[in-house]
Design a protein that fits this description.
Helix content is 27%, strand content 27%. It is α+β, with helices and mostly antiparallel strands.
């Protein structure tokens, strides 16, 4: 009979491989998907209390007040999420697939943003842009990525020539930096969809390309907002590079100026027919005329308002960068056009709780402001007192308790419907019935607050039943046994697992506190004299928080999984 030994130590868990459980659920309410208690919807609200452009740290739930449709709500949970500065590209890992990236984005501890560059209205081809603009923003964008990206970030890069289906979330920046550096060349040389659509049309249709590209931008931004909104409740960010988001009305005069002769009556195969309108209308290809009518009838002002509404509903913030910088048109009409365009861009940022870097030539300083604004935030959670599940929008306000001063925060959310409540409650009941105590990851994390056993005395041989020996490694110092699994980012963690017998397989992964694998390589070594498997890694690339090291070993067909939780403070 095969015997499997399971040992729980402070911060570590050893269990048979066959008993592995799927990723543990989030351990705080603010990090969970919406849950229900007594038919009440749990709502998460991200808040950004700031002073002098910096997030205010050290606040507790008692410092905040949340109003939903004017009614106070009781705060049940609070998480403070802070993102550290740049880490080298080599220590970051891209998700292995688009699906994995989207799954990771559901965790609010990942900062999520997409850089979207409008190729039409950020180049010299755009309105009131006598000089090329894209070259001005290329290096600031690369510097922004170099400054801000860390292991707690997920970002995407799109242009108006992409669709949202092309969105892939990543951490590494080398490929994206090259794409950004190629923007100006691509805008001048490469053909886009507008060129292909209007290629067969007479030259007088060339002016429609501007409207066609504006239509593409609005469609892409709408799809991007919906896609990001589907990933999680908490804030998502779009860094939008453009000088203009058009708000043109339908051009009825242009439409009325086009007249068509009545169709000619003819015959074909013995039948009376009208002329073939798929081939020609007023002597011009009908496909061109169809695009003409569609684009001239389009009301871009309403599309602007719809984008603003959707962004607020899906909790997507826009950070605006106008690469044109300071503009000085020679005419009064030109100056008014520039002012109106920049005002629209600022309004999109302000109404979605973002920032606008407009009408300035110091784009690097503007990008730094954006980086500072994205550096940290609070996630507040509460059970709404409004149990009317009608799918309606509800207004949120967050302010300081006592003073009543407003705090920049999520502004609204969509209430679930009765059908959504029924489905989620049913799922919750099934999950509760299937639950059999805490998961392996939860058990390992629960041991963090207890003291750990120190390493084995020198000369004592390791036993397979022993707990791992854990050490703290500082610069130019010998490894020190630890009594608490608390580490600084300036230190390294060293773990030595007993390995009295040979192993066919040994692998290590780093998990976050929800049990999700993180894109980090964990190299293992073996000391045959001490009979231990060794892992030593620097902690500088990681943000503060709780992590779990998972070691999987097998020998002769028998496998085991060992979990060790530690905390970076």
């Amino acid at each position: 009979m095969r015997t499997v030994l399971t040992i729980l130590t402070a911060g570590a868990l050893i269990l048979p491989l066959a008993a592995q459980q799927p990723g543990a659920p989030p351990t705080t309410q603010a990090q969970q998907r919406p849950v229900f208690r007594g038919g009440t919807h749990f709502v998460r609200v991200d808040a950004y209390p700031s002073q002098n452009g910096k997030i205010v740290e050290g606040l507790t739930a008692d410092d905040f007040e949340i109003l939903e449709d004017g009614k106070p709500q009781k705060i049940e949970s609070l998480d403070f999420i802070k993102f550290d500065t740049f880490t080298p590209d080599a220590v970051r890992r891209d998700p292995q697939s688009q699906r994995e990236g989207y799954d990771l984005a559901g965790d609010p501890r990942y900062r999520l943003f997409v850089i979207y560059v409008d190729m039409m209205f950020s180049s010299s081809q755009g309105p009131f842009a006598p000089m090329p603009n894209l070259p001005h923003i290329q290096q600031p964008l690369v510097n922004f990525l170099d400054r801000i990206i860390g292991p707690g970030d997920l970002y995407g890069f799109l242009t108006s020539r992409n669709s949202v289906k092309d969105l892939v979330l990543a951490q590494k920046t080398a490929v994206t930096s090259e794409q950004i550096k190629d923007l100006w060349r691509a805008s001048v040389i490469d053909r886009d969809e507008a060129d292909e659509v209007f290629g067969p049309c007479p030259p007088e249709f060339d002016g429609l390309k501007v409207r066609y590209r504006a239509d593409q931008t609005y469609s892409n931004l709408r799809d991007l907002v919906y896609q990001m909104g589907s990933l999680r409740q908490e804030r998502k960010n779009v860094v939008f590079v453009s000088n203009l988001l058009p708000r043109w009305r339908a051009d009825t005069r242009a439409l009325n100026a086009v007249t068509e002769p009545p169709p000619r009556v003819g015959g074909r195969e013995g039948r009376v027919t009208l002329d073939d309108r798929e081939t020609s209308v007023s002597g011009k290809p009908s496909a061109c005329m169809q695009e003409f009518r569609r684009l001239m009838n389009m009301d871009f002002d309403s599309r602007y308002m719809e984008l603003l509404r959707d962004a607020k509903r899906e909790n997507v913030s826009f950070y605006i960068i106008t690469p044109g910088g300071l503009q000085a048109p020679a005419t009064v009409a030109g100056q008014r056009a520039v002012t109106a365009a920049y005002d629209d861009m600022r309004s999109l940022a302000e109404e979605t709780d973002g920032l606008a870097v407009a009408n300035t030539n110091d784009l690097n300083a503007g990008m730094k402001k954006i980086a500072d604004d994205l550096a940290a935030y609070y996630v507040l959670g509460y059970y709404t007192t409004n149990t009317k599940f009608d799918g309606a929008l509800r207004t949120l306000k967050v302010r300081y308790k006592g003073s009543g001063a407003p705090i920049r925060a999520r502004r609204q959310y969509r209430a679930p419907t009765e059908q959504e409540i029924a489905a989620l409650v049913s799922s919750s009941v099934r999950s509760a019935a299937a639950a059999k105590g805490p998961s392996a990851v939860e058990s390992a994390l629960a041991a963090l607050d207890r003291s750990v056993r120190t390493s084995r005395p020198a000369g004592v041989q390791a036993s397979p039943a022993d707990a791992p020996a854990i050490f703290r490694v500082r610069t130019r110092s010998a490894p020190e046994p630890v009594t608490e699994l608390l580490f600084d980012r300036t230190e390294r963690i060293r773990v030595e697992w007993p390995n009295a017998g040979s192993t066919d397989r040994r692998e290590a992964r780093l998990l976050d506190r929800t049990g999700k694998p993180m894109p980090v390589d964990l190299p293992l070594a073996e000391d045959p004299i001490k009979q231990v498997i060794i892992l030593e890694m620097p902690l500088a690339p990681f943000v503060r928080g709780d992590y779990v090291i998972e070691l999987t070993t097998s020998a002769g067909g028998d496998g085991a999984r060992q979990l060790l939780a530690f905390r970076i403070r």
